[in-house]
């Protein structure tokens, strides 16, 4: 370990540098940490620092290239001159800037933090050491919490803030939001050393089911720094997850043995029963003492009996179906519906923050799945209506680009309608929500409606159309392929 001395004589510690990205050993650095306010330095060093950043680093921190080489404008991008912002530097012996961190007040008790490490000095522990120095300063100031916003794609930064004790608190646009609560993290003797805060490292979480939705969901957890062990019944979906830091289990038995919380995103109840070995000798061992999080859409009655079986064997169970297709899943913009015991729901809500723009508590099991089915009625009928409207417009010879522009600009427009309408106009059937999955969801809604003696005429019509689409060999296509069933029905009228 190397000792770093700031100007005031306090000590921060930095791990010995790791191998650089090219694989060679990086020579040790003698750095000094200090607030900018305590330094008499040439501000041009800060400008040089910014202009030496690689394009990718500029985009992650500022959204693109710096607007100009004007020194004053450049420094304003760092918050210099803003009375709410404190700037901290890591300096080389030559006076060149190795890293910059900012602490911007958002209230009397909270501040937002940001970090930039020079592109040629990354992966050496400098960022961890500088952030640790700043966390100690925030404690000394009496702040209650720190916030950090990190782009989903910035895997290294997500891991770093998690390592220092920050916890996910939800998505903010294209970023993940993290929070560090300082009273518990360190006012009483916290000494961040750049390697890890006193907050325990997040526990290993298991994730089974890496299909169209499961893969991007697991990937967002891994990118957020959540230690993750994954397994899929069909191999071949591990590469991106491994690159993001997830570990790969050899089988379900290993995953359950190593993880106290297991997320399941499986196709149906048969797959769920198989993975859990429900009714078999391994079921008790796989659920006892564990929190099972079911994120798939299944029959509410099935979920109710599964919850009872898991609890009978000493396990815990939470339903967490999500609203959204693959694109929102990739962006971490899903909406989760949660049902279970209150103490479990708070754990799961925090765990799923990197995946969801919002999580809504829906009471006891199977409240979340019933809510999901109600949401699906609207989704299925809306997209089917959009397909029929597009079919009508095309057959009438209307300008489909103009048709789409009118719908997109009107009061009925939504993220889903804009996304699906663009695919309909382009006849792009690349899967986001597969016909086969929509048909299965439609069946679940219809069965729940019949069991409760609720009429579902629109769902019955949709079920027939999606069934006809699947019969054309389009079960793996996106749900907008239902337009093919409409086209075939039109052809029979001639």
UniProtKB/TrEMBL annotation:
<dbReference type="InterPro" id="IPR013328">
    <property type="entry name" value="6PGD_dom2"/>
</dbReference>
<dbReference type="GO" id="GO:0016747">
    <property type="term" value="F:acyltransferase activity, transferring groups other than amino-acyl groups"/>
</dbReference>
<dbReference type="InterPro" id="IPR006115">
    <property type="entry name" value="6PGDH_NADP-bd"/>
</dbReference>
<dbReference type="GO" id="GO:0051287">
    <property type="term" value="F:NAD binding"/>
</dbReference>
<feature type="domain" description="N-acetyltransferase">
    <location>
        <begin position="31"/>
        <end position="183"/>
    </location>
</feature>
<dbReference type="Pfam" id="PF00583">
    <property type="entry name" value="Acetyltransf_1"/>
</dbReference>
<dbReference type="InterPro" id="IPR029154">
    <property type="entry name" value="HIBADH-like_NADP-bd"/>
</dbReference>
<dbReference type="InterPro" id="IPR008927">
    <property type="entry name" value="6-PGluconate_DH-like_C_sf"/>
</dbReference>
<dbReference type="InterPro" id="IPR000182">
    <property type="entry name" value="GNAT_dom"/>
</dbReference>
<dbReference type="Pfam" id="PF14833">
    <property type="entry name" value="NAD_binding_11"/>
</dbReference>
<dbReference type="Pfam" id="PF03446">
    <property type="entry name" value="NAD_binding_2"/>
</dbReference>
<dbReference type="InterPro" id="IPR036291">
    <property type="entry name" value="NAD(P)-bd_dom_sf"/>
</dbReference>
<dbReference type="InterPro" id="IPR016181">
    <property type="entry name" value="Acyl_CoA_acyltransferase"/>
</dbReference>
<protein>
    <recommendedName>
        <fullName>N-acetyltransferase domain-containing protein</fullName>
    </recommendedName>
</protein>
<dbReference type="GO" id="GO:0016491">
    <property type="term" value="F:oxidoreductase activity"/>
</dbReference>
<dbReference type="InterPro" id="IPR051265">
    <property type="entry name" value="HIBADH-related_NP60_sf"/>
</dbReference>
<dbReference type="GO" id="GO:0016054">
    <property type="term" value="P:organic acid catabolic process"/>
</dbReference>
<dbReference type="InterPro" id="IPR002204">
    <property type="entry name" value="3-OH-isobutyrate_DH-rel_CS"/>
</dbReference>
<dbReference type="GO" id="GO:0050661">
    <property type="term" value="F:NADP binding"/>
</dbReference>
<feature type="region of interest" description="Disordered">
    <location>
        <begin position="1"/>
        <end position="27"/>
    </location>
</feature>
């Amino acid at each position: 370990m190397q000792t770093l001395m700031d100007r005031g004589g306090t000590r921060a510690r930095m791990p010995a540098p790791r191998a650089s990205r090219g694989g060679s050993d990086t020579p040790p650095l003698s750095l000094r940490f200090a607030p900018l306010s305590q330094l008499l330095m040439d501000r041009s060093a800060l400008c040089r620092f910014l202009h030496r950043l690689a394009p990718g680093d500029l985009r992650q921190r500022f959204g693109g290239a710096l607007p100009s080489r004007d020194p004053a404008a450049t420094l304003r991008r760092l918050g210099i001159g803003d009375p709410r912002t404190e700037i901290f530097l890591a300096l080389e012996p030559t006076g060149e800037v190795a890293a910059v961190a900012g602490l911007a007040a958002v209230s009397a008790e909270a501040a937002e933090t940001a970090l930039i490490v020079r592109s040629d000095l990354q992966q050496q522990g400098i960022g961890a050491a500088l952030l640790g120095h700043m966390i100690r300063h925030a404690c000394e100031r009496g702040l209650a919490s720190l916030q950090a916003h990190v782009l989903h794609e910035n895997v290294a930064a997500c891991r770093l803030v998690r390592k220092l004790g920050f916890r996910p608190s939800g998505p903010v646009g294209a970023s993940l939001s993290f929070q560090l609560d300082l009273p518990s993290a360190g006012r009483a003797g916290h000494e961040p050393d750049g390697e890890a805060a006193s907050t325990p490292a997040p526990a290993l979480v298991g994730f089974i089911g890496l299909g169209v939705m499961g893969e991007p969901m697991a990937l967002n957890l891994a990118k957020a720094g959540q230690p993750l062990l994954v397994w899929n019944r069909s191999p071949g979906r591990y590469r991106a997850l491994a690159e993001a830091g997830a570990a790969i289990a050899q089988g379900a038995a290993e995953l359950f043995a190593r993880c106290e919380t297991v997320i399941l995103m499986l196709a149906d109840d048969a797959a769920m029963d198989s993975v859990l070995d429900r009714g078999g000798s391994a079921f008790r061992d796989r659920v006892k003492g564990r929190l099972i999080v079911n994120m798939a859409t299944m029959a509410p009655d099935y979920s109710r009996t599964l919850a009872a079986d898991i609890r009978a064997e000493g396990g815990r169970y939470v339903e967490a179906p999500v609203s959204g297709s693959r694109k929102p899943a990739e962006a971490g913009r899903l909406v989760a519906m949660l049902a279970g015991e209150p103490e479990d729901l708070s754990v799961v809500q925090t765990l799923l923050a990197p995946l969801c723009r919002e999580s809504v508590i829906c009471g006891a099991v199977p409240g979340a799945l019933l809510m999901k089915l109600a949401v699906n009625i609207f989704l299925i009928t809306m997209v089917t209506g959009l397909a029929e409207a597009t079919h009508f417009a095309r057959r009438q010879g209307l300008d489909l680009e103009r048709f789409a522009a009118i719908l997109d600009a009107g009061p009925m427009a939504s993220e889903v309608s804009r996304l699906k309408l663009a695919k309909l106009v382009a006849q792009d059937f690349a899967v986001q929500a597969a016909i086969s999955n929509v048909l299965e969801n439609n069946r679940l809604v219809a069965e729940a409606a019949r069991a409760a003696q609720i009429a579902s005429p629109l769902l019955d019509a949709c079920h027939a159309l999606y069934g006809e689409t699947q019969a054309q060999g389009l079960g793996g296509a996106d749900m907008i392929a239902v337009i093919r069933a409409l086209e075939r029905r039109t052809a029979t009228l001639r």
